[in-house]
User: Fold Poly(A) polymerase I from Pseudomonas fontis.
Amino acid sequence: MLKKLFQSFRPPVRGPHHKRTTPEVINSGQHSLQRGQFSRHAVGIVERLQNAGYQAYLVGGCVRDQLLGITPKDFDVATSATPEQVRAEFRNARIIGRRFKLVHIHFGRDIIEVATFRANHSETEEDSHTSSRNESGRILRDNVYGTLEEDAQRRDFTINALYYDPVSERILDYANGVHDIRNRLIRLIGDPTQRYQEDPVRMLRAVRFAAKLNFGIEKHTVQPIRELASMLREIPSARLFEETLKLFLSGHAAITFEMLVDLQLFEPLFPASSEALEDNPTYTHTLISQALINTDLRIKQGKPVTPAFLFAALLWPALPLRALRLQSRGMPPIPAVQEAAHELIAEQCQRIAIPKRFTIPIREIWDMQERLPRRSGKRADQLLDNPRFRAGYDFLLLRESAGEETEGLGQWWTDYQDCNDSQRRDMIRELGGRDEGGAGPRKRKRSPNKRKRADNAADE
Ligand code: ATP
Ligand code: MG
Assistant:
């Protein structure tokens, strides 16, 4: 699977892809798109803008996805009209954004985003010295309006730079995007290293689209990633939170995870989990993969998924090592687990700004793991009434599926939920004194020399 994703082809056209100034025009009949497939609101906006004398096209994800037979998430319009000119044409239009103005045109709950053509500054010596990163972590080069050609060149991947005119039903292709769609390849427009340096998040977008579309990443596009991966540390944590959700809630999280690890992009996103992956590879890999496979399945089935459960799973394997380090400094086991959880989340939030509405349930899911083994008296029934019980129980099953030894605790809880009251009382009685242990994540058995490494680390 991975091999297939990273297969590479020789570029179809000799010479730099990004210098193309006249587009390849693909007429209706030479491609599979039809106007009727697109949102009628978006098509209406394009017609209206063209009638007012502006250039206007459907662009980006919606053209790419329709060519691949995928239902687009949203429909974006690109135009030569400025935001003010767009607003003047539509009563239901609102300008949003300060630095990069966009127009949102509202049709009830449906919103169509209209963006004015933008350009990259030409890169001069002076630019490269004075360019700075804005609040989203991008280099400030694409904040000026431009021509259609320039708008195509500043986009990230060739497959995202296709413009569809629903009036003439023609596609304009400035970057050989149609070729790359046919060959199922993710290819950056322009020089890959430079494009990643401008905006390191493009490395994550390459992985996201490869996983979502089941495409390979073209050789030159994949080549610089491992070397540049650490640039993700410069990206604001709020933007990385958004990107991480897109990566793991796309319905293709399991393969996305494999690619992130392989391309060394997982480390800058989840440093502690990445350490756990080295320290305890089989367990960590199994637990995270299993959580992501479950997430993908739930999305396929249209069931809700909570980012809290996802982050709880991504971080859980990093807990034992931390708790152990605190213990080796003299902290008793239970406070050590609590403190480790607190530190781990605080550190993770430096990289990825997980909002409080998710960090609180992460802690609750973890705390539940310490409580699930204690079932005597009324405790089991109290736990069942806890609003986090379901997530806590699912998390226990996840830990077991990754090989954690819990002495059949998951099965016990499965049975308990199925029982009537008197059967439940019997189950509690049968427990006798067996419900004491099992606090927090267990330290897995480790080989002697790994143990030594962990102890050394704790002594530092
Ligand atoms: P989807 O919405 O299905 O995830 P999309 O291609 O529509 O995919 P968006 O993030 O909505 O992706 O961006 C819309 C378009 O804007 C892209 O198709 C691409 O042309 C351009 N774009 C987005 N982010 C970047 C970026 N970081 N660098 C360059 N171009 C970008
Ligand atoms: Mg989109």
In short: The two ends are 41 Å apart (CA to CA). The domain at 20-200 is CATH 3.30.460.10 (Beta Polymerase; domain 2).
